[in-house]
Amino acid sequence: MDIRPLRLIYHRAERRLEVAFSDGQTFSYSAEYLRVYSPSAEVRGHGPGEEVLQVGKEAVDIIGLQPVGHYAVQIIFSDGHNSGIYSWEYLYELGRHQDRYWADYLRRLREAGYSRQKP
Description:
alpha+beta, NE0471 N-terminal domain-like, 3-stranded antiparallel beta sheet
């Protein structure tokens, strides 16, 4: 898949990252969504079943975006998390499946007994 971003715009007031891709798709991601689905080992673990449920990220903000070669972006979050490298393919996947992934995250929070706080 040769999907690449044409533009990345961070809307600070809404805490949303907008990414327009070369196939015409544009996705808008909340900072919280990107943080809880970080591709880092801290979040995903080192294998199946090692994922760590991220809680208390409702008010997280993006404080930096660093290009990684021609294939990814490193997102720096206000909670100090900065080890996730978001490939263009992974960002695209997060956009395409956003409704399902977000619903799954909310379900896992409920099952863990966590209630989201308003940011």
